[in-house]
Each structure stands twice: as structure tokens, then as C-alpha cells.
Amino acid sequence: MSAVSASSARPAGQRFREISGQIGWGIVAWVAGIAFFLPVLWMVLTAFKPESAAETWPPKFTFSPTLSQFRLVFSGWGPYVTHSLIATTVSTLLVLLLGVPAAYALSVHPVKHWRDGLFFFISTKMLPIVAAIGPLYVIALKTHLLDSIWLLIILYTAMNLPLAIWLIRSFMLEVPGEMLEAAELDGAGRVRQMGEVIMPVISPGLVSTALICVIFAWNELFLALNLTTTNAATLPMFLISSVPQEGLYIAHLSAAATLASVPVIIVGWIAQRSLVRGLSMGAIK
Amino acid sequence: MAEVNYVQATRVYAKGTPPAVDALDLDIKDGEFMVLVGPSGSGKTTALRMLAGLEPLDGGRVEIGEKDVTWVHPKDRDIAMVFQNYALYPSKTVAENMGFALKMQHVPKDERDRRVREAAKLLDLDDKLLDRKPKALSGGQRQRVAMGRAIVREPRVFLMDEPLSNLDAKLRVQTRSQIAELQRRLGITTVYVTHDQVEAMTMGHRVAVLAGGKLQQCDTPRQLYDNPVNQFVAGFIGSPSMNLQTVPLAEGGVRLAGTVLPLPTAVRTAASQAGLSELVLGIRPEHLHLADGTGELTGEVMLVEELGADALLHVRLAESGNQVVARAEGRKPPSPGQQVTFHVQPDDVFAFHPVTGARLAG
User: Fold this and answer.
1) B242 pLDDT more than 90
2) B58 and B47 Cβ atoms separated by less than 8 Å
3) How far is CA B37 from CA A10, A61, B34, in A?
4) Which of A181, A196, A200 sits opposite B87 (nearest CB)?
5) Measured between CB atoms, does A186 come within 8 Å of chain B?
6) Which residues contact residue B187 at a Cβ distance below 8 angstroms, ignoring those fewer than 6 apart?
7) Chain A stretch 145-164, residues whose beta carbon is closer than 8 A to a beta carbon of chain B
8) Residues of B in contact with A197 (CB under 8 A)
9) What ipTM, to 2 d.p.?
10) Under a CB-based contact definition with an 8 Å cutoff, are residues B191 and B158 in contact?
11) Cis upstream peptide for A58 (omega within 30°)
12) Is A176 on the interface with B (CB under 8 A)?
């Protein structure tokens, strides 16, 4: 429409440059997209291969698919999935439960020294978890929480809370002050303001925050590996069990990894509209 | 319905900075439409928020209905406010927005719905809009919902913070008269903040002009126009604004455009008593009457703004080179470059102290 009428007015040389520019960038975008997707594609395909066909280089794209790897995964992963589900959902709920009031106290109704509080939260992420594993192990041992699902819940909550507070706080800052003043004039106390005004406005942001916490908790390996053995072993630990001393069971690993990604993808799919809104909140005033 | 009093009300934002509102004394009568007008930073919005209870007082007090409400919580002051950006709750429907305050007061649902419907009718809000969310409404409709939210509460005082500034020009003019009419019908004391002096002049029973946190003058629009108490009010009220020139005193009057403009005796006496050698002269554009060569003030037309019914002439006066704006007939205005003369009645001339801005012999 407008492109057609506009392009007919411009000299042919410029038009050629424009179109070739668009095509060029299109190609770059496709190449980049495919490059990122290719390893995932390979992993999913390998999941359908028998172990012998999996360890070839260059990778085979034609083969006779089999579901034997998936059967193996399903037979083995039961308790791991349960533990992952429990640890992830409970810790994410706790994060939201604790993070929302914390973010409120650091944004809408700031407490004294809120800047220090905020910095303290983010500073906890500055320490590499490897440095903390020693003391964490000892504490877990002394409190008899080693290899307990509650230990993972507590640690995952602590791990995700700073990020959640920062995200939720930024969403709360988007709530116009006038709206809260109007609610105050209407007779809403602070709790009602939170429930009736703030929460509905930031709900897309809460969904995207929850999703990020779910992803981090679901994929967390280091803490689970070092602090649990059987009673609370999570899915990532099941994945690395495909990498025993004797060799790499790559087809089994691919099947397990494919299945392990599915829940997060489903949640992300369901939440995608909220995710886009939540992540771009505040970008356009 | 109640009267509102500001008694030496003061608000200082940071220690050491000049007050945002400086010892404001203002009495608003029951049922009156009082407009607070002034440029940005004049303290008018702060004064309104002090009345609402959204801004604490650092001195003085605020009274509603002769009761000191300085430390009373906003929701207990029995007031309702319309915010500049409407501040509607985006997740609630129009009906829920308007009924929210009543819900907080535990008003039963039927009563709530009845009052919401009544307010919607008063504001010409269609029934089917009641179930929509604010984002599905136009700017004008949102503004009416914001007003409806205030009306539904049947408060003692209405507070309005520049409610028309987000509307386009045509809608603004239309809504202006609707608000004034509504206030007349409901008879509720209203305090209205605006920076637009046209809104102030057309809507208010009385207008309070603020500048730099201080009250300059509180009077009816007519009085503000005819009898400004200082240079600021004179220059602020009236569009196009009054021509203000610093001119030297001469025998019998002041020297302007190469001639002596006579001033009333009272003004001359006041000037000499104050020991002034010059003063600020104020002449409204419509008081510079175009005279065919017989006027005492001469000048050259620099620019003509044709408004249809009138024309505004930007004239450079002779000798002193002062620029003035004069109002002339729209039919056949002079053209740029033309030499013109003006006649001025001595009674139409204002004189102000060059330092304090106070009116001389008001």
C-alpha cells in the first residue's frame, strides 16, 4: 500500500538497496534463529534414536525412530519429578508471598533505609554459590535437613527472592501514585489498596516473575547435587545420572532433557501473553 | 456542604527552601465554586492536596465546616477529589470504579447501584458504559467517570485538580460549562485548581490567584479584571495579557511613546509619596483605541494577528521602542509597517510600583 506508492516515487538504485538490505537482515535473522534452535532440534531428534545410532558424528538426521529411550526415562524418573515439582512450586509460592510485601516496603511505601535494604538483597546474589556450599552443608547437617525437600524449598526461596523483589518492585513503581491516593480518599486502607489496586495492576508482572522463579528452581543443579542424595533428588540430578563413569548415554540424556523441558515450556506457553505484558511493562508509558 | 477555611496554612518541602504554600489565608463559602489559579509552582495544587489530606501541613490549619481537619485522615474528611489524570482503577468496571468508595463505606449493594446509576445519568454516561473497563473509554468519558466517582459520594467538598487539562480544546470548552452547571445544580462547595485563567474566569464564583506560594488576590472574576491589586494579577488575568511597561514619570503623568500620558492625581500623589522616578504602566489591549492619526500614542505596526472578529496588533511605540499589543476591529486592520496612533482614557490606565508590584492608588 504505502510502501508500493512510496517505492514507485524513489529512484531504482535506492529501492534496490532497501530491498536487498531487508533481505539481508532477514537472512541474518533466520540464520541466527536456526543456529540457536539447531542444538535443541538435535537433542529432540536424538531422544528418538537408539543409543547406538546416537553417538555418531556428523549427526544422523535420518533414522528409524524408537520410543525405547522415553520408556527408560519414564520408568526411572518418578521420584525425581515429584521432588522437582514440590520444590519448585512451593518455593515459587513462598517467593511471591514474601516478595510482594517486601517490594511494597521498598517502593510504594518505602521504609527508612530502603536503599540499604535493596542493596542487601541484591548483594546476596553477588556471592558465587560455590563459595557458600561448605557452610550450607554444615548448617544442613546440624539442622538435620540434609537430603530433605524442605532444605531445597528454603534454599530455592532464598535464591529467587532477591530477583523477585527487584522485579516486583519495578512493577509496583509503575502504579501511578494518583491511583493509590484516589483509593486512600475512597477509604481503602493499605491492605485494601494492595489487594484492590496494586495487585490487579501488577498481575502480569507477577506472572512473569513467577515464571522466572520456576525456571531457575526447576533447572537448579548445584545445590540439589551437593545437599541431597535420594530423598529429595531433583530432575537435573536424574539428567546427570545419564553421564556415569562408563560413558555418555546420549540418547537417554536427550530423552530425559526433552521431557524435563516440557513442563516449563507448557507453563511458559500458557503464560505467554502475561509474560510479554509483564516484561514490557513500563517500557511504553 | 460546608465552608472551607485555610488559616495561615503553610507547607515547606525541604528545610531552607522557600515554602510551597506560604501562610495561606483563604475563606471559601458554603456552596461556592472557588478557583485556585496561578502559574506552575505557584502552590495551588499543594494547597488543594493539603485540603484533601494528601499533603501534611507545616504550619497553620485547614478547616472544613468550621472544624479543624488538619490531622484528620483523608477518608474521614467527607471530601471527594477528581485527579488530573483521572486515576481510575484499570482492573475495575466503570460501575465498580464509581462505587468503590461506597463499598469501602459498607453501603449495601442496591443502594450503591442506585447511586451509581443516578450519578451516571447526571453526567450523561450511557448505561452500557457501566460494565466497561476504563481502557475501553474515550478521554472525555473517562473524565466523566472520574467526576462520577466523586459525585456518588455526596461529599461536603469537591476538589478538582486540573480535570480538563487532558482534554482537547473543543471538549474542554464543552465540559467547562457542564462542570459549572453541575456545581450550580448540586450546590456542593468546590475547590478547583487550574493554570488556565480562562477556565478560572468563566467557572468560578470567586478566583484566588496564587504565585510563589502566596495568595495575590481573591475576588470575583470581574473585580480581578477591573481592579487587580498588583502587577502579577494584572498581567495574569486577561488574554491577551495587559501591556506592562516601565516608564519614567513626567510632569502630569508618565512619558510614553514620545508624549506625556496623563495620570489621575491620586496615582501621581502615591508615586511621589513613594519617592518613585518611574513606575510600571499597565494598559489592557482593548483600551488602546485605534485613532485615525489623532491619538496621543504613535507607533509602527510590526505584526497583525487576525482572529476573525478582532485583530491583535503588535505595535512598536515611537521613541521608547516599547512593544505593545492592541485590540482592533477584525474587518480592516492596519497592515504591518503602517504608522498608527492610539488614544487611551486616563481612567483605563493602571500604575504599579516598579519594585513591589503593588498597585498605586488602587
Assistant:
1) yes
2) no
3) 53, 77, 10
4) A181
5) yes
6) B1, B31
7) none
8) 89
9) 0.82
10) yes
11) yes
12) yes
